[in-house]
Amino acid sequence: QLRLVESGGGLVQPGGSLRLSCAASGFAFYDSAMCWFRQAPGKERERVSCITSSGGYSTYTDSVKGRFTISRDNAKNTVYLSMNRLKPEDTADYYCAATFYRGPLSGIYIGGMDYWGKGTLVTVSS
Question: How many CB atoms lie within 10 A of CB 42?
Fold first, then answer.
């Protein structure tokens, strides 16, 4: 059964850290690029970060560069998002998604993702 299950969300104070995990099953995780998206209340879903199937390349949206790090463990079929120096504007539902697209990461877009998780909520507030 194909599944993407996110975990690790929660309430954190500004300046704090969280590590999100996304466990995959039911498809060739090792052969897929993985991304994290987020959607804040009243806003469109946006791409946060993506990583190639090998883990060798990654991209980040400008607002999280230097604060967030994406990584993956193909032996565990899991992708991670380490989030540091969190800000209130990082509050959102965070989703992981998989794609078998083989082009550059810059070409990945929301409509091109093959599989989605159900999301985990991150709330940054004092």
Answer: 5
Report the distance separating Cα 97 and Cα 13, nearest Å: 26
92 Cβ neighbours under 8 A, 6+ residues apart: 38, 39, 40, 41, 43, 121, 122
- Distance separating alpha carbons of residues 68 and 5, to the nearest angstrom: 20
Q: What is the pLDDT of residue 125?
A: 97
d(CA 36, CA 57): 14
Chain segment 92-119, per-residue pLDDT in tens: 999 999 999 988 998 898 888 999 999 9
Q: Could you give the angle at the alpha carbon of 109 between the alpha carbons of 45 and 90, nearest 5°?
A: 35
In three-state secondary structure terms, 22 is strand
pLDDT digits (tens, 9 = 90+) for 65-94: 999 999 999 999 999 999 999 999 999 999
C-alpha span between 80 and 125 (Å, rounded): 22
